[in-house]
Structure formats: C-alpha cells, structure tokens
Specification:
Elements: E1 2-8, E2 11-18, E3 23-27, H1 38-44, E4 49-53, E5 68-69, H2 70-81, E6 87-91, H3 93-104, E7 111-115, H4 127-149, H5 152-163, H6 169-181, H7 183-187, E8 193-194, E9 211-216, H8 221-233, E10 237-242, H9 249-252, H10 254-267
Parallel strand pairs: 3-4, 3-6, 5-8, 6-7, 7-9, 9-10
Antiparallel strand pairs: 1-2, 2-4
Helix pairs in contact: 2-3, 4-5, 5-6
Length: 268
C-alpha cells in the first residue's frame, strides 16, 4: 500500500493506493472518510489498483480555508496515483462528486458507479419529489437538536439508524464512529467545496460516460427518485436496484455490490 498526502491549493488530501490491475477510485460518503471502504478494498485490491482518499474537512485531509472545486481535488488524486481512465465509484455525496467529475472530465473516466447519489433539491420537482424532500428535511429536523442537546454520538446513532437501516450491527457501529470522527464536517455552517457551474444535477443529459446508478430498497425516497432522474436523463445510464440495500450498499448488500463492481471492471 502507498500512502500519500497530495498537495492541492490551500491544503492537502490523504490518499491510499493498493493492489494491481485496472484503476478504481473510491469516493466516500459525506460525514465519513475513506475508511468506510475498507471491506471493499480488501477484496477489490486482488483484481484492481484501488485508490481511496479523504475529502477536505474529513479524515486525514486538511480543513478547507478557501473555496475550491471538488472535481479539481479528484483530478489531483488521479494525477498523483497515475490513475488513467479509472472506474470511479462513489456513494452518497461521493457519488455526486463522481458524476460531476465525469461531466467535467469525460476523457478521464472509463465508467462511473453512482451508489445512493444525493444531489440536494430537485429542479422543477414533481409532487412526489417535493414530498420526498419534505420527508428528508423532517429527518434532519428530528436529529439536529440532538447534536446540541446530547452530543455527536446521539446524533450519529439516530442518523445512521435511518440511512443505514439494513446495516449489520458492526457496520452500523462503524458508520456511527466515522460520523463522530468527522464531526467537524457535520458542524460546518457550509462547505467551501463547489460543484460545477451550473450544478451537475442540471446536466445529466450531457454525460457521455457509462453510469451504473445503484439504489437500495431501504434508502430514502429522495435518493431513489434522484436515481430515477439520473437513470432517465443520462444517455448511458443503467439503473440497478438492490432491494436489500440501504444508503451504504457496499456494507448492507456487499455481495450485490461486489457483483456490480466486478461487472463494471469487465466492461471497462
């Protein structure tokens, strides 16, 4: 395994590369870090060269002090690892960043797996999408007061109990612990990382990279509806529903997730 600290404007990114074979780059969820991929890297490094990294404000990467483009950070990681046209795999906010990178740098990505992708508010929402976002906001309205009243551990337990409803107990504990370890990001008033301009969720139709859109049966309705939008609008998108999975399919449905990722590597 090779560990690096990759210099970027106004900061640095912690990265790890292990294994041999075609390049795969894994992008973690928000309020977590690259450790959430440990069980995936354990099998994937036998068939691929796997790079993980911590986003700014998370894990061992630096805290953001000035605005930066998220896709430029990904490009810096690929450059440092020598990853040429990797399979880019993201979960949750990492999936949004993976899709944005493919939109900004289509020649640098062979394939995207966007699992449980989150893109915020829906442009021109349908009534169903409006209701789904209201349900998600209600979740945060329930758990945010816990942060001040009972602390980050209570907040993390309540949050992961919903997002990770199908997680086995050890993985649920791990995701809670990662939220606690990344409390700085949770408590930020706003992230200094910027999406594309215009945001990628308005440009799905312009994606030219093949995208596997993975969504779990136990995830929020908002996530499932975003998956439907992405799969419908992106020209080379393939919707893959995993009934047993929640927001973290690599942990809640690992056999299904492994099958999806192996298929993407075969098709690369």
């Amino acid at each position: 395994m090779i560990e690096r600290f990759v210099d970027v404007p106004d900061g640095y990114l912690y990265t790890r590369t292990t294994g041999t074979g075609p390049d795969v780059v894994l992008l973690h969820a928000g309020a977590a870090d690259s450790r959430m991929w440990d069980s995936t890297v354990a099998w994937l490094a036998a068939i691929a060269r796997v790079t993980t990294f911590d986003f700014r404000d998370m894990g061992l990467s630096s805290r953001a002090t000035a605005p930066y483009r998220e896709v430029d950070d990904i490009a810096a990681v690929l450059d440092a690892a020598g990853a040429e046209r990797p399979v880019l795999v993201g979960v949750s906010d990492g999936a949004r960043r993976a899709v944005a990178f493919a939109r900004a740098f289509p020649d640098r990505v062979a394939h995207v797996i966007a699992a449980a992708a989150v893109f915020g508010e829906f442009p021109d929402p349908t009534p169903e999408e409006t209701a789904a976002r209201a349900d998600l906001h209600a979740h945060f309205n329930r758990i945010v007061p816990l942060l001040a009243a009972e602390g980050i551990a209570a907040y993390a337990a309540a949050d992961i109990a919903t997002w990770g409803a199908a997680l086995p107990p050890p993985d649920r504990r791990k995701m809670e612990a990662l939220q606690i370890a990344n409390a700085h990001w949770i408590e930020l008033p706003e992230s200094l990382g910027t999406d594309l301009d215009p945001p990628v969720q308005t440009a799905f139709a312009e994606l030219t990279t093949p995208v596997d859109v993975v969504v779990g049966g136990h995830d929020f309705a908002s996530t499932r509806l975003w998956a439907a939008r992405l799969a419908e609008q992106a020209p080379k998108a393939n919707l893959i529903e995993v009934p047993a999975a929640d927001h973290f399919p690599m942990l809640s449905a690992p056999a299904d997730f492994e099958r999806i990722l192996r298929a993407a590597l075969t098709a690369r």
